[in-house]
Amino acid sequence: MMKIQSSQVAGLFFIGMSCLAIPAAQAQQSSTVRRIYISPKGSDQNTGTSVKPFATADAALRAAEKYKKGKAGYGIEIIFNGGTYYLDKPIQLLANHSGSKRQPLKIKAADGKQVILSGGRTLDLKWEQGDKGIWKAKVPAGVSFQSLYANEKHLVRARYPNYDASILPFQGYASDALSPARIATWKNPTGGIVHALHAGRWGGFHYRITGKEDSSKVMLEGGEQNNRPSKMHETYRFVENIFEELDTAQEWYLDEATATLYYMPSHGKDPNQLKFVAPQLESLITISGSASGPVHDIEISGLCFTHTAPTFMKTSEPLLRSDWTIYRQGAVKIEGAENCTLRANDFVELGGNAVFVSNYNRGVKISGNRIEQIGAGGINFVGDPEAVRSPAFRYEKFVPLSQIDTLRGPKTNNYPMDCEASDNMIHTIGLIEKQVAGVQVSMAESLRILHNTIYNVPRAGINVGDGTWGGHEIAYNDIFNTVLETSDHGAFNSWGRDRFWHPDRKEMDQMTAAHPNLILLDAVRTTKIHDNRFRCDHGWDIDLDDGSSNYEIYNNLCLSGGLKLREGFYRKVYNNVMINNGFHPHVWFKDSHDIFRDNLVMHSHQDIQVKYWGDEVDHNIYTRKEDLLKDQTKGVEKHGRVVPLNFVDAIQGDFRLKDWKGNGFTNFDMLHFGVKDKRLKSLAASPEIPQLIRSGAKEQGLKWGWKGGQFKSVETLGEQSAAGLQSIAGVLVLQLDEKSTLYKSGLRANDVILDYQGEKIEKLTDLQQAIKKLIHADQPKVVVVRNQQQQKLALQL
């Protein structure tokens, strides 16, 4: 089991709901503003005044529309009095509810009051005690739910293995979760759920059990939650919603066929004394318009959104060639909006996404919000694939050159543009779904992602899924405790598998060399990443992966994982500080036009299969002479320099160079990252500041010559990522004589050997021993990974 340190991820798996009263300054009374009130004790037959409030938002919106017709140009405020509102349907805001730029429609909490919008249903239950500490109660016929709360505490659906907040991934996993012996103990597992990581730990999968095929095997449906299909991980998996696994306190199980709820309370507790809430709705507010008829000038503030239903089985829409599939839903969903704002709200204990900004949106601002304890992602900006020219939807898919639309930029305007996510605190997300991010961007242009604090996430803090259409500013964010449950990723991650992409690298090399105009057809504007603090202990701090192009990266403090540039074009990286790490260039194109200069690095460049070093890799600052000399042997860093480790205050995270007067590199502010809002700043955590490692990077391992080739163990995350491996394991072919029998058998340099005649190969000694053990094998068969796909070869020895 993988344990985590509570000091690193404090509060990561708190199971409970905490909506806070959000201070809000009440506007002064004005004859030009009509205030319409809603109260849990109100009535839709009332007039909507503070004395006679409505009961529902629908009634308030009808009154607002009526008032607006008679009072053109007047402002309207819909004010929720304090209390909990259990919604039976989402509040829907349409174009006819729009305000004006001068007088936006405001929907907000009463001054200083706690207002909770819940997607749950309270259950009136009469519990009876049964055997083995399990109680049971009838629920209304036809009522189903995937999550359950008792006195605001999130309960655990019956599962194996049992929930343990200190274990990652999944708060507990077991390789025997689907073993024949365990399945044989389940009388009727239909409706059970299997959660598992991707075999490469690139996100996760979820499956529904549809029945038993025999006494020890189940039938499954689902597994559409990742756009890079694979088998489920053999170890990282668990099952839930199976009656026989109800065996510990705080677990529950719903038998939908008999409308019976089973629950095991803590010892001595009577569940009849508890208030149970079952989430029902997927969304609580929808803003729904279009480019031709947008919803505009609406501000929503001071509300707490909670108790939405999990949506993981609906996550199936692929996003271009990224590794993501999505479900276009959130506690607040915004589509077809202009100049609308979500400000100073709380999003807590949600089953799906917090906010989803879908398709056409302009000027949408999401600011000052607290987002935590979320089943899926935080804030999502996702456009329409129909707005993309020559789209393809899987990593291995491509559009033939003769069929590529060569017009630059988008085809339609149906995507988010000029929108902002700023000053939000986002943490403890992806509690169910693992291919999520604090802020996710796909098919969007010119977004501003500023001053957010994002931490305790299973994958990236910020993810940009493709190059369409760039122009984003990602700045002043504080992102840490990332990639906690997955692999091969970063605190910031991007992909750029745009129109020029081809899964066969040789084909892509030839195509981009012959037609360089293809490269920036989608990434039309430069994305700037600057003045952020990143920490990823399980990957890279900044990870520009597969084809990410047209980036300018400067003034970032990288605390752990360094910076990676995989194949892509036109990346300019300068004036960044990389603590205890450095630069990771991977498989660059011949004419990448990349620049890496005037950065402070603390080990030599960790290049993987780099033959061509872009336009410039030089003038960088090193802390060890041997690292600089090592890089100079590669033909780069002619003007590199070495400086002593003399930081202003390394213990407090101020890694500015003390008394620095050198040219090129300039100090930048290292103490003001993340949220600025006083409320959120008092709640937000900060990253652990690393202790400086003054020794050099670990030397490469043993190399072995065999039959005209050079071989070594796969030893680093960089080598794993470059080859597209599921783990840091296998034997890398470093060199291979083209006249050798191995080459004639089909083996190639940069192949990774995973299996030799049925023997699993994890390191060089495994291969050496297998060869000796199977010396009499006739044309031994090997499994290799090439171009991120497995191939089988028969070797001629």
From TrEMBL:
Keywords: Signal. Residues 721-796 form the PDZ domain. Residues 1-27 form the signal peptide. InterPro entries: PbH1, PDZ, PDZ_sf, Pectin_lyas_fold, Pectin_lyase_fold/virulence. Gene3D superfamilies: 2.30.42.10, Single-stranded right-handed beta-helix, Pectin lyase-like. PROSITE patterns: PROKAR_LIPOPROTEIN (PS51257). SMART domains: PbH1 (SM00710). This is Peptide-binding protein. It comes from Sphingobacterium athyrii.
